[in-house]
Amino acid sequence: MERLMIPGPAELHPDDLAVLAEQTVPHYGDRWAPFFRGLLDDVAHLLDAETAYILPGSGTAGIEIAIANLFAAGDRVVVPDTGYFATRVAEVAEALGLRVKLVATPLGAPVDPDGLDLAGADGLLAVHVDSTTGIRHPVEELARRARAAGVTFVVDAVASAGGERLRLRESGIDAVVTAPQKGLAAPPGLAIVAFDRRGSEQIRRHRPRSWFFDLTRWQEARDKDEWEPHPVTMPTAVVRALAASVARIASVGVDSWIADRHALAGYLRSRLRAAGFDVFAPDGHAANLVTVVPCDDPDLYARRAIRHGLMIGRGLPPLAGAVRIGLLGETATTASVDRIVRALEDRT
Amino acid sequence: MERLMIPGPAELHPDDLAVLAEQTVPHYGDRWAPFFRGLLDDVAHLLDAETAYILPGSGTAGIEIAIANLFAAGDRVVVPDTGYFATRVAEVAEALGLRVKLVATPLGAPVDPDGLDLAGADGLLAVHVDSTTGIRHPVEELARRARAAGVTFVVDAVASAGGERLRLRESGIDAVVTAPQKGLAAPPGLAIVAFDRRGSEQIRRHRPRSWFFDLTRWQEARDKDEWEPHPVTMPTAVVRALAASVARIASVGVDSWIADRHALAGYLRSRLRAAGFDVFAPDGHAANLVTVVPCDDPDLYARRAIRHGLMIGRGLPPLAGAVRIGLLGETATTASVDRIVRALEDRT
């Protein structure tokens, strides 16, 4: 099996793999309930949020949860089209009956907050780092624009949380969505949705047309059920591995953890450029967890990586002519960076 | 940690724990896609269904998926009130905008198919084994009634699949819902929804107001995407452990596997009765995976179990005055049955 240098899922720390191998525990009771409540608090802290929810699901489920609990059918939302995952966000909003304005933006540049017309909108939904391009978009400036326009702002941080700083409470982001298998270096299988205080108040005013995704129900279980702090069976193994990884990040310190990823991504870009490769993201806007390298023959580079025992990601539409390199989990090391650059260079 | 004799989650086979401990694999590519498609076929076969879907989620998510894809808001459905999980099914249908008739039924008896009035209904939603009572309800007879009345029939088999025979294709059940952590002896974290041919055709006529739970989207990915046969990131570790457990059941043979559970549940009931305990389910309708023992002081019996290193379930409303014993996974053995009966008897 090749080592994973894809933009997710991440390879797991051996200690977290050992947690996964432990016998199944009940998702309720005197040990589980305080443990799970503590994890919710730790995840909220890591995301700088007022409150966090963890549900069985995926990043896309999290997008649906955030939208369904913050907006009603018929609401108008603006989505800057930053790539594959922005169109996904727009699709989810449309499936929920929202009126979506997908705003064209230059693919190779960060979204321009001043160019966004939010008149008449109820919400702004933006991708923090679109894995299509490896560009980090200016969500804090977008938050100020959204706050000024009085619209609710949701950030898709699936490809950024744990790798880029999020400052919900000071910036005015109402909700962020992520998943465990990227910057949090945990196994896939969960949706993570976090809110600042304003977002948290707003979810109490909307009940989605869904039982499972209705966060008011999840909040009630957390508040009232001493025995089982969630309304459904949780993926206990995955949750426990997430807790182990979150504790590890906390032990380093979130800021240090992210600074390390920032330095490593800079090192990857400098090594790539020294080897004659381009990096798609403009300087100052390059993401920490995913680096996109435009190329004519992505398959060639993917095969070179495999020959060296590594797996990288292919380009995603509309930027199919690229490879994508992830710096997540156990392969976020300078040794891995050296190895992948050597592999991409290897013409033998 | 106590051994689990609760009605779920199940303790896992050591080989499946070893699968969970393996490094994360990508949820796409040449190895994953055929593996996942094969698992869908194997699960459909195990449930005697035409087609099965596996999504990140839980049993309740599966109920929502089945209802959302088979019915539209405003549709009328009948739900026999067989206990806690029947009220859950009714709640989910109501959250989706269906008009629900929750039909009172005697708690201590199987649903009487001839007593059900399906006039004007679009659907019948019934729980196969309600974990509240440990009673197995006659879903095949209900299927005949539903088919005669021209209504769509959905079975909540969360507490029965893998432990009770389901015959979708011959009986006319349109859809069944289950989850991995009960009779399939796998880790929690997935929703499993399976359809016979008629149910499978019907889901193509309804698009739910949801992106994530829209099975047409899941079917398209399975049909068309050679690289990634599902539209979101899957909980790879949990899926792989489910596949290992499903393969183990298939190697025994589904019928033999279920016959073993039937014999073991009979043995538990005879041992309990010999020790002076009651069993709530009437003879001939007792479930294989969960046995409910009415008692005045459930806490006393739960404490006795814990003193013997075992964990049993407490009663669920409306039958709180009971304990519930699960025969799932690694503790579905005669040795465990002997041990739990000794524990419940132990007055020291």
From TrEMBL, chains A, B:
Under the heading SUPFAM superfamilies, the entry gives: PLP-dependent transferases (SSF53383)
**Is this entry keyworded Transferase?**
yes
* GO molecular function ontology, one term from the record: L-serine-pyruvate transaminase activity
Describe the location of the Aminotransferase class V domain by residue ranges: 27-277
* Entry binding sites for substrate: 324
Concerning InterPro entries, the annotation shows: Aminotrans_V_dom, PyrdxlP-dep_Trfase, PyrdxlP-dep_Trfase_major, PyrdxlP-dep_Trfase_small, SP_NH2Trfase/AEP_transaminase
User: Where in this protein does the record say N6-(pyridoxal phosphate)lysine is found?
Assistant: 182
Report the Gene3D superfamilies cross-referenced here.
Aspartate Aminotransferase, domain 1, Type I PLP-dependent aspartate aminotransferase-like (Major domain)
**GO terms classed as biological process:** glycine biosynthetic process, by transamination of glyoxylate
Q: Name one Pfam family in it.
A: Aminotran_5
Which metal ions or organic cofactors does this protein require, according to UniProt? pyridoxal 5'-phosphate
Key words of the record = Aminotransferase, Pyridoxal phosphate, Transferase
Q: Tell me its family.
A: Belongs to the class-V pyridoxal-phosphate-dependent aminotransferase family.
**Protein known as:** Aminotransferase
